[in-house]
Structures are given as structure tokens and as C-alpha cells.
Structure prediction request, 356 residues.
Amino acid sequence: MFSEPARRLCAASLFWIGTMLPVDAQSLNDQLRTSFAAGELPGLHGAIIDFQGQRLAEVYFPGEDERWGLPQGLQEHSAGSLHDLRSVTKSVVGLLYGIALAEGKVPAPDAPLYAQFPQYPDLMAQPGRELILVRHALSMQMGTEWDEDLPYSDPRNSEIAMENAPDRYRFILEQPIREAPGKTWIYSGGAVALLAKLIKTGTGLPLDRYAQEKLFAPLGIETFDWVAGADGEPSAASGLRLTLPDLARIGQLVADYGVHDGRQIVPRDWLELSFEPRAAVNDGTQYGYLWYLVGAPERTIAVAVGNGGQRLTVQPDPGLVVASFAGRYNDPASWQTSIRVLLDFAVPEAKRLLGK
Prediction:
């Protein structure tokens, strides 16, 4: 219901050189609208394609929507509409962790994770847990049991069980050890919740307030919604809601290695660390610090994906940002819509502009 592990990302490496050609945004918008009308982009709510600082396309479509699993009925989506990011939220939390780390307010990646939660001394004392580091949460390699393969309507799904637990942090930390940390990528909204707790503890601010002060306001993002669980904690795994243009702003910030309007918002070295492959997701996809990674290391493509077809794709070189929202929640084929926006429209147009 809330998050969605990536099963097939299918992002393409671009690796272009060439001379820019004139931009015809209206033509690309018309192509997207024609494809949507033909049923080729099912569930698409909106798409933005930016390339080297130019907006190539921006379109919106009506569709049934949800707010963190609660049906909202038919919505007329627009540039001002808030929309679930679902698990794209995780990558935003990754940016916030880097900001807080630069301020000296959260532990370094090599710090022992359980030592940051002294309120659970019984868990800290269990053999093997002292080996789990903060970086294992950042890369989802904690080595503890966690299962989000079950439907999000199933209370046995680990994220749903976390949300239903009287103490979400104890629930996450007490999961049985499955293997040594750092060996296997195990998709975990719980790992991100722990990182959000470290941000709150270190900064003294709730996650949403810290995001507003340190990331959203500097980018000019004025409107957002961060859905909280029953315990009042903003869901770090899947609760953020933004407009599509504001998600694209975050994508552009990443493409520019953390710089916006001449100001370093997210440390460049943190983004470089985040884009280092640390775990294999599948044959074509690696995982860094809360970002999926495809392509060669020197031409990284960073991807954030969420349940229903939410997607942010960023390739800093040559400067491609593609953001899309969709309403195919809990549909295992939802990734196909956002991938079509990327591969059938964004990539060909960027190649055309570069004369390839």
C-alpha cells in the first residue's frame, strides 16, 4: 500500500555528445498527450522532462488518485496538485541525511547503528547487532529480516506491521538477524525510518520541519504534505507529497550536484557517496545511499521509484531530469508507464537535441 521495491527499473544510459538543436516543447507535449489518449500511458497523472536546464515537456492528465492509500476519487492533476511520492520519499530522506551530516548533527555512515538507540539496551546487548552500521541502513544491507514483498494490504507486510506497532523503532531494531550486515540488499522502509529518527534526534526537529527549513525553502518549495503514521511520526518510507514541478526541482538539484542558485544545498561529496554502488538489486541495477543506480559509475543515472508509477530519474551528465506521477497503486506493472515516459519520449528528444 505504501512503498514499492524496484523489480525492474529499465533506465537507459544516455552518454551523448553533440550540438544542441532547437527545442520544440509543444511538439513533445503533443506526443505525450497523443500517447496518453491512445491508452499507451495508462494511469499517468503528469510528466516533466528537463534537459540541460530547459523544460522539454510538462503535461498533466486527470485520474483516480490516493493519499497514502486512502482513495481521493477523480482528480484534475495540475502543476499545483500535491501528489504521493510513495518510496521516492526515501531518496529525499537521503538528501536530508547528507545535509544533517554536514552540520554534524547525525552520525557518520561508519558509526554503529544500535549505539544510536540507547533507549533499547536489551537489543544493543544481543550478539551480532553491534556489527550493523549506519551505512547498512543507508544502503539497505542491515542483514535483519524484513519483507515488503507481501501486498501492502497484508498486515504481515513489514512496513504495514511497522506502522501498526506501538513502537516503530523497537519493531525495526528487534527483527531477527538473517545474515551478517553488508551482504545482501533487503528492501526496507524500516531502515529509512531509523535514519529519519537519527535526523530528528540530532537536529531537534521533526523530519518534515527539518526538510522545510533545509531543503524545501532554499529550493523555493512552498507547499508540501508529509503524511504521518498513527504515532505522529512523518513516514520516512513513503509519506511525502509534492507537486510535480517541485519534484523536478529536487531532481535538478541532484543533477547540479547539490547546487541551487549558486548555493550548495546538499553537499556534493554526500551525493558522490550516495551514487557509489554498494549493493546489487538485480543484474542491471545497483543501490547506493537510498538511490537506485544504473549505468557506468562515471555516467551515473540515479533513480527514485515509488508505488503506483512515481519516478524521478536524474543523469547529471549530460543533465537529464525526468519526473512522473501515476496512479497505478499496487499494480505490479506500474513501472511500465514511467519507463515509457523516459525511454519513448525523454531519451529520444534529448538525443535529437544533441544531434544524435
